[in-house]
Design goal:
heterodimer, A: 275 residues, alpha+beta, 3 domains, 8 helices, 27% helix, 24% strand, B: 550 residues, eight-stranded mixed sheet, two-stranded antiparallel ribbon, flat, cytoskeleton (chain B), cell projection (chain B), Radial_spoke (chain B)
């Protein structure tokens, strides 16, 4: 969610029972602004909070002029001081996927590989590296996975300029109530995967400036999003069931939207059994 | 050429306008002037009125058109009304038969419901106000909300206030002694808001006939026999006896100590959840399903859940309450002796009361050590009850009737289950792998004087508890599932049951080999030979030749 609209956004996304204490809210207002100044971000998003066993990580993302470019991610343990996370690599993601269990809450904690293939272990031993992974890497890999899988925006909120960069659409006035209840009105804010698989007929209907991302309609498994109207039907809240804790809110016919993650940072692999 | 006259006797107007006496006679002498006169008349008729802007010509034309279109009966009698209608229609918009209906947004209806919460019931005067201010079972939801907010837990203030008012409505309708906001469970289509209540003593309504829990039935007992058929041809009867149903605990004790009401949104009517049975708890431990938000939705799972979503919800609430209802140590104490405390089954005490001499610990102590907290929710045994019950107790009478072979073993096999007693401290809670069962922290490190101690459960993510001075509370916000670091493994189907015991009378034996046959025959021959002492040896030879041909 946008740092500028944080207080109102937290009220709207609080249906799941997770939020921030007044102390954190107060300090975030100031510290996110300072982040913007120090790192020269154009936009700062408060991404959410990953709860570890002994502490919690608060995550913020900074965006540059092209909103679809890889974002800089920062974490903090107390919302006052922020540290930049290293950019994510594929290797990090692959390693982090093998880890199970909660985050510990200590960024320098090292996980030991207990269940890896014999080949991987041999390979790693040859390289001279020990099979350990730091919690920091796991953190950044998890954030990247969550953003890629369930970071969503309403259709029309962003436009692709002819030069290829992505910017906010200033003419976006919000989805209507009927549109807001449909999954096809929301896009994954990440590199599209299914777009080129659409038939020519479908592609003819698309508007290349706004429809350049994958919509949620064809997410696997079907039913992995819940769409609800909260607060008497004034806010549309989407919750992901794959990453429990991700909440997306949008007030129809207004420009307010955003997503935030409050959870333990674990993928819900039992989803097919639970539906 | 003749214009208007002269009228014949049968025509109306006869006798009027006698030539020379018509009012216009002097003005209309000849045809050409008559045309002019007509034009003048028409021009006069077309003159617009100064007050209404209408003119008589158009009005008459409209009126006649309307009459000719509609062809009313007795048009001449209602001509004045028709004229008035035509004038009135001037000022109405032309409406299509298809009109745009004002979209009745569901938001408006929801807003109506919320507004209804805020209206005081009719007939409430000032006298009743004083009654309310006294002892009321209504919990101070906003106060609880404030404390949890210090930790960043909770819904928006609006929602809390709506829940507050909805609870007030619930209390005014039901005879409730204590009431608590238990929490919110999220679902796929709708969410559940749950209130935990206790009825006044003796005021609890009698339960209506509950449907019997459908157990796994025994195998079929064979077809119906006609009396003519021989009994020997009956297929073997099944020896399967289903395990006995463990009865649920009484309302007000154990897992059914509290009664739970749920609603989807504050403003909607509260629905009472049925009491929970041990079979439901045992099954709920094996399955993991999302709630849809509709209480009558079926729960499709394996092992099949005995009930619908309302029962599943109630079972999960029971498990969560048993595992996560905690309080600071010393707040509750066991009641004074009231006679037999030790139950026959060996269960511990199950009642507690508030300790009037409670001394609250400081926040640092509450956060630092888990032994400063105790469970006041009774834990549920493997059997599904809080107090163990031997289901075979009553079978003493039946033992004489049934075969003793079957019954004698079973009562000895069931071990009495004992769970941790009430008011055990949290330090006894097992963690999962290397994660402790609870995470404790203070709400703020900057202002320790006014910090609140917060506990988050790791076994049931979403269960929280706070303590600050003499105040404490528990709450749950989540999806209603237990945490397990391993993936959920659904139960496998049981092994295929044997149809009937195999014994020599139905087992197929091996066909004898040639040697065995020969040996058997030889043995038989010897026996025959021995029996027939008078037989010649020639007969024996013949037999041997016959055997070679075989």
């Amino acid at each position: 969610m946008e740092a500028a609209s944080l207080p109102a956004a937290l009220e709207l996304a609080a249906g799941g029972g997770a939020g921030l204490s007044p102390e954190k809210r107060a300090v975030l207002g100031a510290s996110l602004l300072l982040l913007q100044r120090d790192y020269r971000f154009e936009r700062v998003w408060f991404w959410g909070c990953i709860r570890g066993v002994r502490g919690a990580y608060y995550i913020a993302e900074g965006l540059g002029p092209d909103r679809a470019a890889p974002r800089s991610r920062l974490y903090s343990l107390n919302c006052v001081e922020w540290s930049l996370l290293p950019p994510v690599t594929e290797e990090m993601v692959a390693q982090a996927e093998q880890l199970k269990g909660r985050f510990q809450g200590d960024p320098s904690f090292e996980y030991e590989y207990t269940e890896i293939n014999a080949e991987d272990a041999e390979r790693l031993f040859e390289d001279g590296k020990e099979p350990m992974i730091k919690e920091e890497s796991r953190l950044v890999a998890t954030i990247e996975q969550i953003d890629k899988a369930v970071g969503i925006i309403p259709r029309g909120a962003f436009v692709k300029t002819p030069l290829g960069s992505v910017r906010e659409n200033r003419n976006f006035e919000g989805l209507s109530l009927t549109e807001a209840k449909k999954l096809s009105s929301y896009f994954h804010f990440t590199e599209p995967v299914n777009l080129k698989n659409k038939t020519l007929l479908e592609k003819a209907d698309l508007d290349p400036s706004t429809d350049f991302l994958d919509s949620l309609e064809h997410d696997i498994p079907q039913g992995s999003w819940t769409v609800q109207l909260e607060k008497g039907g004034t806010v549309v809240v989407l919750r992901s069931l794959l990453w429990l804790g991700l909440t997306f809110y949008h007030v129809p016919m207004t420009k307010q939207y955003g997503y935030v993650y409050f959870g333990t940072g674990e993928k819900n692999l039992d989803l097919p059994f639970m539906l | 050429q003749h214009g208007h006259g002269p009228y014949q006797p049968h025509e109306p107007g006869y006798g009027l306008y006698q030539p020379g006496y018509s009012p216009y006679d002097d003005q209309i002498p000849d045809p050409k002037s008559r045309m002019l006169a007509i034009q003048n008349a028409k021009a006069y008729l077309l003159k617009s009125s100064t007050t209404s802007g209408l003119n008589l010509y158009d009005h008459l034309a409209n009126m006649l058109t309307k009459i000719l279109d509609e062809q009313p009966a007795n048009a001449v009698d209602i001509i004045e009304n028709i004229s008035k209608d035509v004038k009135w229609a001037q000022f109405q918009k032309k409406m299509d038969t298809l009109r745009d209906e004002h979209e009745i947004l569901p938001t408006f209806e929801a807003a109506e419901k919320h507004k209804a919460l805020f209206l005081r019931a009719n007939g409430e005067g000032d006298e009743e106000l004083e009654e309310e201010i006294g002892e009321t079972p209504l919990p101070n939801v906003m106060e609880t909300a404030f404390y949890f907010e210090q930790a960043g837990i909770g819904l928006s203030k609006d929602e809390f206030y709506h829940i507050f008012l909805a609870l007030k409505k619930l209390i005014s309708v039901q005879p409730i002694q204590t009431c608590r906001f238990w929490g919110k469970i999220l679902g796929l289509e709708m969410n559940y808001i749950i209130a935990e209540v206790q009825y006044h003593e003796g005021e609890e309504e009698e339960e209506t006939e509950e449907e019997e829990v459908i157990e796994e039935g025994g195998k079929g007992m064979g077809e119906v026999e006609d009396e003519d058929e021989k009994k020997e041809d009956e297929p073997p009867k099944s020896t399967y006896k289903p395990p006995p149903v463990i009865p649920k605990e009484e309302n007000g004790t154990g897992a059914n100590k509290y009664v739970y009401f749920v609603c989807n949104e504050p403003g909607k009517p509260w629905v009472k959840l049925p009491p929970v049975t041990p079979a439901q708890i045992v099954c709920a431990r094996k399955i993991k399903k999302f709630f849809t938000g509709r209480l009558d939705a079926p729960v499709v799972s394996f092992p099949p859940f005995p009930g619908n979503e309302a029962n599943y919800l109630r079972a999960q609430i029971a498990r969560i309450s048993a595992g996560t209802q905690i309080s600071p140590i010393g707040f509750y104490q066991f009641a004074e002796e009231e006679g037999d405390e030790e139950e026959e089954e060996g269960g511990g005490r199950d009642t507690y009361e508030e300790n009037p001499d409670f001394q609250p610990l400081s926040v640092a102590e509450m956060v630092g050590s888990l032994s400063a907290w105790v469970h006041h929710g009774q834990s549920i045994l493997n059997q599904g009850r809080c107090v163990w019950l031997n289901p075979f107790q009553k079978s003493e009478e039946e033992e004489e009737d049934d075969e003793e072979e079957e019954k004698a073993e079973e009562p000895n096999e069931l071990q009495q289950e004992i769970g941790p007693p009430l008011l055990t401290p949290l330090s006894e809670d097992e963690g999962i792998q290397n994660i402790p069962a609870w995470t404790a922290e203070a709400s703020t490190n900057l202002i320790p004087q006014y910090a609140v101690a917060i506990l988050q459960s790791n076994r049931w993510p979403g269960a929280y508890a706070f303590a600050s001075g003499r105040k404490f509370d528990n709450i749950y916000f989540g999806w209603g599932h237990k945490y397990s670091p391993e993936n959920h493994i659904p139960a496998l189907p049981p092994p295929v049951q044997a149809e009937y015991p195999s014994g020599p009378e139905i087992a197929e034996t091996r066909d004898p080999t040639l040697e065995e046959e020969l040996a058997f025959k030889a043995a038989r021959e010897e026996a025959l030979a021995a029996a027939e002492e008078e037989e010649d040896e020639e007969d024996v030879d013949e037999d041997e030749e016959d055997e070679d041909d075989d």
